[in-house]
Every structure is written in structure tokens, then in C-alpha cells.
Design goal:
The complex is a heterodimer of chains A (326) and B (331).
Chain A: H1 26-42, H2 44-61, H3 63-70, E1 82-83, E2 89-90, H4 93-96, H5 113-149, H6 151-166, H7 169-179, H8 185-213, H9 216-223, H10 228-264, H11 276-283, H12 291-325
Chain B: H1 2-30, H2 34-39, H3 45-55, H4 61-74, E1 76-78, E2 85-87, H5 102-137, H6 142-156, H7 159-173, H8 189-223, H9 226-233, H10 238-266, H11 270-276, H12 281-290, H13 294-322, H14 324-330
Classes of the chains: A mainly alpha (326), B mainly alpha (331).
């Protein structure tokens, strides 16, 4: 698992879906799609997690609107909500939760926790989604190249993957982030996540491409004179769709967790920009006196990572069962 | 087998050299001038030049890098004449912050990290694997569902969060455990155990969750195989089927994973050690990073990479004895 919570390192056994049989006609694909969606709709756990994911995404998108409604922006200080005689602890009980501050306030500054959670969702999701998008593209392209062409292409790509996976990645990410000039932190975080993240996707894609390349329908395409590019994009890529979707869904919680861990350690998103991991880090000195301040970002982080993991698990199972039924 | 081993070791040396080069390059290119850091604010340019010369940081990059690598194998001497400081092989240099030998610093911190890693590993292997096997055998029962639910939270909860919640509940509120620290075993074994119990638990929870999920998946796959059906058809009891036929193929991938995870932890449980303030290699690393102590960072990175790579080789060799199907390919 390395040190990354849920980790960049999804369990190797996790994505075992065999690539499906044969070239997929449009009709075949839409029925597969319908079967998977109905399987997902039948599972309450999958639906609950999907609901929470949608909620968090909406919150992230509508953040500026939401803080207008709640009345406090994430950087605004509220001295009336904290008690300077108690070292700046919130006045209202439960971490200062009130009609004014829905999730309470930050000790000492009185900044609104709800606004910081909402903007933190924005930061965390943007970083995780960007990293997932980039690692997927890089991982799929390099994985397919290695798996399809084999030979020295495979040798080079595989050795680079081995190298990156043997690397003490957390130490290195922290070292790199602390050595790099401040700059644009979210962009740097995405870069670092991508450097160490793509091999985990490429490895799976490479294996599946290798087994797909030996199938009859690829031979048929070759015999009919299709170019290599056409075989890769028209025959192999469509058959990897299921795997890719599962890999992306399971990579996202890993990136959210890693970003939070890096921000928790103080090398990620820098204040005043909020991120959930950083909020937890800020709450550490207060965890005994103001547990709510510590609990709220932790709960959001937990539920978000959990939802993506549960959803990914169910999706992977739904796609898998379809393939074994055939 | 021998040629296979030699090939693997050579590849490992290559990877290590690359890790070293890359780490060195990044800190060479990105770090602030160590001489300025050491000398402080009130420092004459001559003094800075002198420190640079002693450290060898006035040399071009490749020269510095090879001096560093040379130091690991043959030792090196800092400075010249009366001020010369000998650093015997394997020399990882001296900390910019404390002037201590990096090798000694790591050596001092290793026992704590080893204690944390071994204790946690015992916990997570016992709990994770047995929970996974039970879940697979009792697939679909309330036990299976409950265990998998716990495992899901285990992989979704950040360990620093669990650490602080546990510390709040067990130490601050209930006061049944002391604050985690690193006492010597000989002084008071019970206190030693209690002090390490929380770090072990926190680390083990995440890993145990992952291992339970993986074991369950593997076990269910194995139980669906034809040879299990054959074994059952022969009239073997379910205990024998499990023990003799199903466990081995299900646990082989776990061995691989365990080797890597354990080796990774020997390089320091960075987050757990930092959160609990335990003076292991992980804490050393995070301190070195926050103070930009380049020689220490180099040392721990190299050592962590070495552990992972050596574990990789050991695991692959073990694999060939555990899984008969791989044996023919390697031999």
C-alpha cells in the first residue's frame, strides 16, 4: 500500500476484468452499457456512493454560489465567533456551529468552515480529476504501445515503469514538492501525482493489450490489411473501455487521498487556499479542545474516498460479470 | 537460476544508480546553496567559498555526483590539510544541520522504524489474511459483509486521521494508553508494548484492510477453479480442501505484496512517525525535508530504494518456490 492512504497503488488483483470478446458492434456495446447501468442501479451501495460523488462535484462547481448563500467566503475572518480569552476557541458549542456558520468556525481566525470545505472540495477534486485524466491518457497510450509492439518499445517502457514503481514515491514526492519553488502548487501537485501514477494504469493496459493482440479478430483485421494504427485504435482500444473506466474510477480516490496526505504534511496546497488535508493538518493542535474542527474535513475526505472506491468496486464487478456470462 | 539472479542484481544496481542520480540532480538543481544555509546570515563571501570548497559543491554536477558515489564505496575526505575530515565507506556524508554522519543518524533511527514495521506487519498479516480467508469461505454472510465494510473504511480513512482520533479517544479521553513514544524494551516491557500499540494499530489497519480485500478476491477465484472441484469430488473435507489446495495459490500474490510493503516501511513510516512524533527514519526524513538537509534526504531516499529493490528480488525468488508454474520459466 506504500504510505499513500487508499493509495496511488490500487491493489494489483483489483482490476482483473478480462477484455471482452470480439470487435464490438454499436448494438453490442449499447446493450453492454445497458446491462452495466442496470446492475449499478440495482445496487443501493453503488447508488448511494454515486449520489455522494454527484453531490460533492456539484458543491465544488457551485462553490462561489454556495458561499453567497451561506454568507461567508473562505478567507473572511469573523472575530465575533471566537473567544480570544480561550485562545481563540469558537464561542458556540460543537466547534462554533450556528445558523451563521453551518459547519462551525476555525479557531483563532473565525473563518467559516463550510466555505473552506466547499472551496476545499474544488481544489481537491480539480487536482484529482486532472491527475486522473493525464495519467489515464499517458498510461493508456504507453501501455498500448508496450503491449502491442513488444520488443524494444516494450523493454524501454517496462523498465521505466519498473523504475518508477521501485521508487520510494512518497519520500520523493515530498522532497520534490519542498524543493520546487512555491509557484502554482495545484499544478505541481498534479505533475508529481502524474509522474508516479501512470505506471499503475499502463501496467494493466499493457497486459490486456498483449492478450487482446493475440485474439482472432485482431488477426482478421491484420489479414484484411488494416494499418497498425487502425488496429490499435479501432480494434484494441474499444475493447479496453471497461478496464479504463474502472482504472480511472479507482485512481481518483487514490489521488484525492495522496493530495490530502501531501497537504497534511505541509508540502501540498498552501494556505490561504483551503484543501481538506491541509484543514486536517491545521486542526491537529486543536483536536482535543475543538474536535469538530478536526472531524468535519476528515469526514468529507473519508466519505469522498469511500464513495469513489465503492463505486469503482461495483463498476468493476458489473463489467466483470458481464464478461464471464458471455 | 544463477544467471537469473545475476541479471536481477545487475538490473537492481542500475535502478539504484538511477535513483541516486535523479535525486542528486533534483537537489543540485533546485536546492538553495547549502554553504549559505550552513554559514547563516552574517557570513563573508570568503567563508562561503571556503565552505563550498570543503563540501565540494563548487565542483560541476557530474564530479560532485561521482565523488558522492565514490564515497559510498571507498569513503571520502572533506576539506584538505589540517581541517580534513575522514568519512569512511560507506560514506553518505554529513548532515548540513547537525554535522552528524548521515549513516549514523539513519543507524540510530532504524531500531524504532524496525520495531514499528515488524509489530504492524504481524498485526496486519494475522488480521488481514484471516479475515480475508474467512470472508471468502463465508461469502455473502453477515460476517463477510461486516468485514468488508470495515476493510472499505480502512482503505478510505487517511491513517493520520485514524491516528489522531485514536489518540484523542484512547489517550486523552479514556487514558488507557500512554502517548506513543519509543521507550527501550528492557526497561518496562509492558510500557514498551503500550507505547507502540497505537502506531502498530494505525499502520496495520490500512494494510490489513487491503490484504483482507485482496485475500478474499483471490480466495474466491481459487475456490471456483476446477482443481478445487476435483478435490471436493474426491471427498476431501472442506478443511483439507482449504488448507492443502486453496490457500497456497490464493496467498502467493500476498507474499509479493507483503515483501514490497514491509520493505517500504523499513524505509520509515513517514506519516505515522510524524503524526505520533516517533523518532524513526520516517520522522528523520520529514524533518530533513522541512529543513532542506540534502545529505540526509539523499541517504534515506537511497536506503528506502535499496530496501524496496532488494525485497523485489527476494520476493521474485520466493515466488518461484511458492508457485510451481513460474519455476519452469525462470530455470
Amino acid at each position: 500500500m506504500s504510505m499513500l492512504p487508499a493509495g496511488l497503488l490500487n491493489e494489483p488483483g483489483e482490476v482483473t476484468s478480462e477484455p471482452h470478446e470480439g470487435p464490438s458492434s454499436t448494438r453490442g456495446r449499447s446493450s453492454t452499457f445497458r446491462r452495466i447501468t442496470s446492475a449499478m442501479f440495482a445496487s443501493p451501495a453503488a447508488m448511494l456512493s454515486a449520489g455522494f460523488i454527484i453531490l460533492i462535484v456539484l458543491i465544488a462547481i457551485a462553490a462561489p454560489l454556495l458561499v453567497k448563500v451561506s454568507g461567508w467566503d473562505p478567507f473572511q475572518y469573523d472575530d465575533s465567533a471566537i473567544n480570544p480569552d480561550l485562545g481563540g476557541l469558537p464561542i458556540a458549542p460543537w466547534g462554533g456551529i450556528s445558523a451563521e456558520h453551518w459547519f462551525g468556525v476555525e479557531p483563532q481566525s473565525g473563518r467559516d468552515v463550510f466555505a473552506r470545505i466547499v472551496y476545499g472540495a474544488r481544489v481537491s477534486l480539480t487536482i484529482a480529476f486532472s491527475a486522473a485524466a493525464i495519467t489515464t491518457i499517458v498510461g493508456v497510450v504507453l501501455g498500448m504501445l508496450a503491449g502491442f509492439f513488444g520488443g524494444w518499445v516494450d523493454q524501454v517502457i517496462s523498465r521505466v515503469m519498473d523504475f518508477l514503481m521501485a521508487f520510494p514515491s512518497l519520500i520523493f514526492m515530498i522532497a520534490l514538492l519542498s524543493a520546487l519553488p512555491a509557484g502554482n502548487r495545484p499544478v505541481l501537485l498534479v505533475m508529481v501525482l502524474c509522474i508516479f501514477g501512470w505506471p499503475y494504469i499502463a501496467r494493466v493496459i499493457r497486459g490486456q493489450t498483449m492478450s487482446l493482440a493475440r485474439r482472432e479478430f485482431v488477426e482478421a483485421a491484420q489479414a484484411s490489411g488494416a494499418s497498425k494504427a487502425a488496429i490499435v485504435f479501432k480494434e484494441i482500444l474499444p475493447n479496453l473501455t471497461g478496464t479504463i473506466i474502472v482504472l480511472v474510477t479507482l485512481a481518483i480516490p487514490g489521488y484525492i487521498g495522496t493530495e490530502a496526505a501531501l497537504s497534511f504534511l505541509g508540502v501540498g496546497v498552501v494556505p490561504p487556499t483551503p484543501s481538506w488535508g491541509q484543514m486536517i493538518a491545521m486542526a491537529v493542535p486543536w483536536y482535543a479542545t475543538d474536535p469538530m474542527f478536526f472531524f468535519v474535513p476528515g469526514l468529507f475526505l473519508f466519505l469522498t474516498v469511500l464513495s469513489f472506491t465503492v463505486f469503482g468496486d461495483h463498476l468493476s464487478r458489473a463489467i466483470d460479470t458481464g464478461e464471464t456470462q458471455k | 537460476m544463477i544467471t537469473y539472479l545475476i541479471r536481477r542484481v545487475l538490473a537492481a544496481v542500475g535502478v539504484l544508480a538511477l535513483v541516486a542520480l535523479l535525486t542528486y540532480w533534483i537537489f543540485f538543481a533546485l536546492s538553495a546553496d547549502p554553504a549559505v544555509m550552513i554559514c547563516g546570515k552574517t557570513c563573508s563571501p570568503e567563508r562561503i567559498d571556503q565552505i563550498r570548497a570543503t563540501l565540494g559543491v563548487d565542483q560541476p554536477f557530474m564530479t560532485q555526483f561521482f565523488t558522492f558515489i565514490g564515497g559510498i564505496f571507498a569513503g571520502r575526505t572533506y576539506g584538505t590539510g589540517a581541517n580534513a575530515i575522514e568519512c569512511a565507506a560507506p560514506c553518505l556524508g554529513f548532515s548540513f544541520q547537525t554535522n552528524q554522519s548521515v549513516l549514523e543518524m539513519i543507524g540510530d533511527r532504524m531500531p524504532v522504524s524496525i520495531t514499528i514495521a515488524v509489530g504492524a506487519a504481524i498485526l496486519w498479516l494475522l488480521i488481514g489474511v484471516s479475515a480475508g480467508v474467512l470472508s471468502a469461505v463465508k461469502q455473502g454472510t453477515w460476517w463477510d459483509k461486516a468485514a468488508m465494510m470495515v476493510a472499505l473504511s480502512g482503505i478510505s480513512l487517511p491513517n493520520y486521521f485514524i491516528a489522531l482520533v485514536l489518540q484523542y479517544v484512547l489517550v486523552v479521553e479514556l487514558q488507557i494508553l500512554p502517548f506513543p513514544s519509543t521507550p527501550a524494551f528492557g526497561d518496562d516491557p509492558m510500557f514498551w508494548f503500550k507505547s507502540y500499540l497505537m502506531p502498530w494499530t494505525v499502520l496495520a489497519f490500512g494494510y490489513a484492510s487491503m490484504y483482507a480485500r485482496l485475500t478474499r478476491t483471490n480466495m474466491i477465484d481459487t475456490l471456483g477453479e476446477n482443481f478445487i472441484r476435483t478435490a471436493r469430488a474426491k471427498g476431501l473435507g472442506s478443511g483439507l480442501v482449504l488448507g492443502r489446495h486453496a490457500l497456497r495459490p490464493s496467498l502467493t500474490p500476498i507474499v509479493t505484496l507483503f515483501g514490497m510493503d514491509f520493505a517500504g516501511l523499513l524505509g520509515g513510516a513517514l506519516i505515522t512517525e510524524t503524526v505520533f512524533g516517533l523518532n524513526g527514519v520516517g520522522k528523520l526524513t520529514s524533518d530533513a525535508i522541512s529543513k532542506n538537509d540534502q545529505p540526509v534526504i539523499m541517504g534515506v531516499t537511497l536506503m528506502a530504494a535499496l530496501f524496496v529493490i532488494v525485497a523485489n528480488i527476494i520476493v521474485d525468488v520466493l515466488y518461484t518456490t511458492l508457485d510451481p508454474r513460474v519455476r519452469t520459466k525462470v530455470a
